[in-house]
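Methods — Computational structure assignment.
A single polypeptide chain was analysed. Its primary sequence is given first, followed by the predicted tertiary structure written as structure tokens.
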Amino acid sequence: MATYMQLLSRPGVLRVVSSQLFARFPFGLMSLAFVLHIQQISESYALAGLALGLETVGVAVSGPLLGRWMGGWGVRRTLLVSAGISATTIFVIGLAPLPAEVLAILCLVVGLSSPPIQSAVRTIYPMLVERRQMGTLYALDATLQEVIWIFGPVTATFIAAFTNTTVGIVVMGVIQIIGAIWFSSNREIRSVEIPKSKRRLGGVLRSRIVVSNAVIGALLIGSFSGVEIGTVAVFTDKATAGIIVGVLSLGSLLGGFLFGHRSRTRWALSRYLLVVFVGFAMVFIAPDSAIWVSIAWFIAGLGIAPALGLLGAIIGASVKTADAPEAYGWVGSGQMIGYAGAAAIAGFSIDLIAPEAALLVAVVMGGGAVIVALLSAKFTPVISNRDQEDEK
């Protein structure tokens, strides 16, 4: 913890980290808030799922584009304009008496205009700390991200249960616009000028680092689909399933604080992902035991936040500042595609084989992430032992 406290004492770090965390909190609310609201209006989980899928597609498409625009439009302008469009659309979804089919299309608009907070902040992080501290800062970011995924869904269901789904949608829109204004008002954000990329759109994908990280991110995030869908399918009591899945985030939160700042070799990413894979594989010792599955998920979680933090740090250390926002956008798109694709595979596996088959999706994708990390280790930079590149 002393390492993190030292990091947060640097000028601007605490301010930027806290404001971006608040600005990203709506993404933790979004999935359940949209599903609950549209299902209530349409009485159709299929339509609600379609709406969520369209929002996910929108984010995957807009990530690289909005990230790239920050180099031409400016970070603050891109964030505020996109947040304004997204929040306005969210308010329409929550308040306008529109058919559910129209609301589903509007969810696509929300995804297409989602403010690229994560791409912005991860591009700016290398400007706030020394290179030797980058791994720690990205690990802290990934660790705190778990707060979003732990408390976001709980908040959405709590609001829906004690008020109604409309209130949940409105709250999400309010937080999004306030968060974007707060984050973009930081002087570190106001003053930063990201050079306009000289590459064509997609040119950053010529980097082996970007491609390998996008693939690893897709496999890792995709494995979460198997965990979540498989757990719900195996343990039909929703409260029990929710607690078991929450243990994964709890393990990730703890792992980030304990191990996130210890990434000192080029094999660190492979080791973190191996922990995740081992935890996933352990579940098949007793897949019908809630206690054992919780233990397995907790062990897997210990490697998640450190791995995600290191993925972000590797991009930050390897890509020019002008190309970093687009690079982070592509990595985010890969993660979205991985999650959606794995969710579809997990669903079909349950229907065609058995509920436990969805858990195998997590194991296979987790193992795939380890393999790609091992293959890419030879060109992966060591974050903590090199000086900052001059071009950064």
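Note: The chain has two domains: 14-193, 204-384.
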